[in-house]
Specification:
Blueprint (H helix, E strand, L loop, with lengths): L5 E4 L12 H17 L3 H15 L2 H9 L3 H8 L4 H4 L4 H8 L4 E5 L4 H11 L7 E3 L12 H11 L6 E5 L2 H10 L2 E5 L22 E3 L13 H5 L1
Parallel strand pairs: 1-2, 1-4, 2-3, 4-5, 5-6
Bound molecules: magnesium ion (MG).
Length: 229
């Protein structure tokens, strides 16, 4: 009897369509936070963020290291966006998740509280067994390898029995290299600030590409644990 598969979901621009501006609003608030905290203009704030992202894996870790920023304060500030006015319930998503034969978890660079609020707005909070947010990652955001390994350890899952959905090719690459089945959701649009970090080679192809997360069942025949069944 093989272990039950693990389905791992990114949150932003994966469980809801990229057209919603919510993650952009968080991104804007990160920029605002850096501007206010460091007393710099937008351009300098952007270059500081790029530097911290490249050196420490997240803006937050750089701010903690060099400016004594408290993670709780930062996370509350940057995630203070009007989710319920923007994100609507997706009954079709709930139905799709309910049909998956395995454990479902969320793996997001956002905070735990933010993830809970987005999942509640989508109407799928009760479909996820666990949420692994930026606090779990110890602020080492995807695509740093650390949180991927920590997630597998925490869930007791084996890479080859796990599937990971993310809109970012950059975030899919470490999972692919670990042997996790990778599904790209929608078009991968990496933000300009990520350009300084190692980009996946153009030859990198995730195992499957779908237009919307609700199309996941269409590609499950290629996911080895289900293909064997
Ligand atoms: Mg995303």
């Amino acid at each position: 009897m093989p272990a039950s598969p693990l389905f791992i979901f990114d949150l932003d621009n994966t469980l809801y369509p990229r057209g919603l501006p919510i993650w952009r609003m968080v991104d804007d608030r990160i920029e605002l936070y850096v501007m206010q905290r460091l007393g710099v203009d937008a351009e300098s704030a952007r270059s500081v963020r790029m530097e911290y992202l490249a050196d420490y894996g997240s803006t937050l870790r750089g701010l903690m290291r060099h400016h004594g920023v408290l993670p709780e304060e930062y996370l509350e500030y940057v995630h203070d966006v009007p989710i319920s006015g923007i994100v609507q319930a997706r009954p079709e998503l709930k139905e799709m998740l309910a049909g998956l034969p395995g454990k479902r978890v969320v793996f997001t660079n956002g905070s735990l509280d933010y993830a809970n609020r987005v999942l509640a707005a989508l109407g799928v909070a009760d479909m996820m067994e666990e949420i692994f947010g930026i606090e779990f990652m110890e602020y080492n955001a995807k695509p740093s390898l650390y949180p991927y390994e920590k997630l597998l350890k925490a869930t007791g899952a084996v890479a080859k029995d796990s599937l990971f959905c993310d809109d970012s090719r950059r975030n899919l690459l470490p999972a692919y290299e670990m042997g996790i089945f990778t599904v790209q959701v929608g078009e991968s649009v990496d933000p300009p600030k990520a350009l300084l970090m190692k980009a996946p080679p153009p030859s990198f192809r995730p195992h499957a590409v779908i237009g919307d997360i609700c199309d996941l069942p269409d590609v499950l025949h290629a996911f080895p644990p289900l293909a064997k069944a």
